[in-house]
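Moderator note: this is an archived Q&A kept for reference. The question asked for a predicted structure of one protein chain; the sequence and the answer are reproduced below.
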Amino acid sequence: MMHYMGAIFDLDGTLLNTLEDLSDSVNQVLKQYGHPVHTCEDYKLKIGRGFRNLLEVSFPAGSWDAGLIDGALAMFLRIYDEKYMDKTAPYDGILRMLGELDAKGIKLAVNSNKRTDYTNNLIKKHFPGIPFVDVIGERKGIPKKPDPYSALEIARKMKLSPHEILYAGDSGADMLTGTNAGMDTIGVLWGFRERKELIDSGATYIVSRADEIIKLF
């Protein structure tokens, strides 16, 4: 096994279960526009490519144009601002796993397609004692995952080469992000996507519990 010195984590579906707060917020927008709502299960396949995309894939096909999504996105952000701390919580074992990796001297970071302010606020609330090297969310003008730009930026801040870092996430996009950055990947099964998507996207390791990640270091 490789000797890994760093770990980069996705946020939604990997460290935090954000599903209900996101689902509730998008459904409130859909109701305002007179459209049918979706279940939490439905949203598992819609989340992960940024808020604008989330709205585009939640509105009925053919019911929207760019201008309508602009308005829906503004409404969603007002609602999510009020809701995003309501039901969101870490998955079982995550805090202990991060603490043990930190105790081993592993450098830790977060790379999310969620907007940076939400990402930072959620990390501060739920993981205040974890010394992340960097926490990166969606930024204007910077390509989103699976582009490796942010993962490689984090590697430079960690002062590690990509092959010394494990990239963990719950989606195919996360596996591709790690691979595109030259990093081995961990697909987690407690998030929003299925094992098949993780395997098809080239996951190096698949884990079903947070403590399994510790053993990879």
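Archived answer notes: The chain has two domains: 6-17+88-215, 19-83.
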